[in-house]
Write a structure and sequence with these properties.
heterodimer, A: 11 helices, 0% strand, B: alpha/beta, Alpha-Beta Plaits, 6-stranded mixed beta sheet, 4-stranded antiparallel beta sheet, 14 strands
Chain lengths: 238, 303
């Protein structure tokens, strides 16, 4: 962890135009939950549906994709990363710092809004808010680790990440149970299910599978990013 | 005093060879890395900067390997070719951050010193995004100088600069060298390298084509046969007059005009207008046929 790199990365993330997306997605979630609450539709089942479909299904992966790739991919793309790499700092420190920045952003713009949204709709009933917050937190961390690893590996990180989140987790996992086992979203739901009493939350993957996989993926992603950055080749323009 | 050493360095991408068996030692003073675009200059600088592993051979500084060895960055300052440099930070914030990343004891003072060296104190509190090309180049220099490294690597530092900025940067580079630093810069423009470098390394098509001071390189370049295309009011008579002089080795009459091969460039350049005037021939066009840098370099490689 290096505070200077963290500072520059935060400035870069929040200063860009794409930072608007960071604000936009949670704003939509909060707005929807307020509307449901005010119109009296915020029963446990509707709240669960919103938090599952929009919260864990769209908001969380998209935010993590924005944050996880955004903290490092543009810098590799335009060569700015050279200013960090030409310092007597172990390269894994650079990637791990950027991973932590992404996690903080996902907590601020994803996990907290999901928690607040659940509270708006149902208060603390059935541990729904705590459950979803915990699920979003572990899921968000795993997403960030995955996306930062892809960002260091490929120039097409955003596309690959989108394909994973949209095609794999949303389409394939719906029909193929094998794909479900390897879905961060399902692991997050599994953790949520463990904490909440709401019957509407039904996990397809048991926590005995989900938790170890979450840990393995997170550690592997962070370690891989650091290892890959050590040998990151920046090719010349000629 | 630091020395960069390349021993039998090659780099290939798949089956494309970018750098082929280059051996050179770069010591204090200004060294120019000269070569046409695509010759492998950037690949070489990237290897010296630790951004690229040599496919074979060794790249080191004072006996230490550069690849996968971040501790060498205490001794190297690198100015990348690309312009992007954290546009959202002010110049001072940027240089200060670099000082902190170098773990300097007084990053603020070091940053101010570096900003002073490149004469960027005044605009230091404006965001880098608002800087001109020359200012960006200087702020990049400041970031590379902030830890007072003995070795400075500059990748195409004059690209896109106007003449005034070019002169300022040349002064700055001379100053860095006068302080005992080892400064290496790449360029594809002979005049730039000639004006600035006391030592020149020429790279052509990935190979080390020539090495020496600028006089030696200049001689190599002017002594080669020059090809000219000449159109005149009487090509045949002009051809006869030219071939009578030893500065011309060959003349060919073509539909497009005369193709002249001159062996003594200086003499030929003086002779041609004199001959034409004396013989009452009007010159319509005199154009070098092979003045492209590539042809100059390929001549060097062949010799």
């Amino acid at each position: 962890m290096n505070s200077v790199i963290a500072y520059i990365t935060f400035r870069g993330m929040l200063g860009r135009r794409r930072a608007l997306l960071l604000f936009l997605l949670p704003a939509v979630l909060l707005l929807l939950s307020i509307v449901l609450r005010v119109t009296g539709h915020s029963d446990l089942d509707t709240a669960t549906a919103l938090l599952m479909q929009f919260g864990l299904g769209a908001l969380l992966p998209l935010l993590a994709l924005l944050a996880g790739t955004g903290v490092i991919a543009p810098e590799i793309d335009d060569g700015q990363i050279m200013y960090l790499l030409t310092k007597p700092i172990a390269r894994p420190v650079i990637s791990t710092t950027k991973f932590l920045v992404a996690v903080v952003l996902v907590i601020a713009f994803g996990v907290l809004p999901i928690f607040v949204s659940a509270v708006i709709m149902n208060g603390m009933t059935a541990n729904l808010a705590t459950g979803f917050a915990a699920g979003a937190l572990v899921g968000g961390i795993a997403y960030c680790a995955l996306f930062i690893a892809i960002a260091v590996l490929s120039r097409f990180a955003v596309t690959i990440g989108l394909i994973y989140a949209l095609v794999w987790e949303n389409l394939l996992a719906r029909y193929a149970s094998g794909a479900k086992t390897l879905s961060i979203r399902q692991w997050a739901i599994s953790v949520t299910d463990m904490i909440t009493n709401a019957t509407a939350v039904k996990a397809d993957v048991g926590t005995a599978t989900a938790v170890p996989l979450l840990i393995v993926l997170t550690v592997a992603g962070v370690v891989f990013a650091g290892w890959k950055l050590r040998t990151l080749s920046i090719t010349g323009t000629d | 005093m630091s020395v960069l050493e390349l021993r039998d360095v090659s780099r290939w991408y798949g089956n494309v060879v970018a750098v082929n068996g280059v051996t050179m030692t770069i010591g204090p003073g200004v060294t120019g890395l000269l070569g046409p675009n695509g010759a492998g200059k950037s690949t070489l600088i990237h290897m010296m900067g630790g951004f690229l592993a040599p496919s074979s051979g060794q790249v080191g500084i004072d006996g230490r390997r550069i690849w996968k060895n971040p501790s060498v960055y205490r001794h190297i300052g690198l100015v990348p070719e690309r312009e992007a440099a954290y546009d959202f930070l002010t110049g001072r914030e940027f240089v200060r951050a670099m000082a902190k990343l170098q773990r300097l004891p007084q990053p603020g003072a070091a940053a101010d010193r570096a900003l002073g060296m490149v004469e960027m104190m005044e605009p230091a509190d404006r965001p880098i995004g608002t800087y001109s090309k020359g200012m960006k180049q200087r702020i990049k220099m400041a970031s590379a100088l902030v830890h007072d490294p003995p070795v400075l690597l500059l990748d195409e530092p004059f690209n896109g600069m106007d003449p005034r900025q070019r002169l300022q940067l040349m002064d700055l580079i001379r100053k860095m060298a006068a302080e005992g630093r080892t400064v290496l810069f790449s360029s594809h423009i002979l005049e730039e390298v000639e004006r600035l470098a006391h030592h020149i390394e020429v790279i052509v098509a990935g190979r080390h084509a020539a090495s020496g001071d600028f006089r030696a390189i200049r001689r190599l370049m002017t002594d080669r046969p020059h090809m000219f295309v000449v159109r005149s009011s009487d090509d045949r008579r002009l051809a006869a007059a030219l071939i009578a002089d030893p500065s011309t080795r060959g003349v060919e009459l073509t539909r497009a005009g005369l193709e002249v091969e001159a062996v003594d460039f200086r003499r030929f350049a003086l002779l041609l207008p004199q001959l034409a005037r004396d013989a009452g021939i009007r010159l319509w066009e005199v154009a070098p046929a092979d003045e492209s840098l590539e042809s100059v370099f390929s001549y060097l490689v062949a010799s």
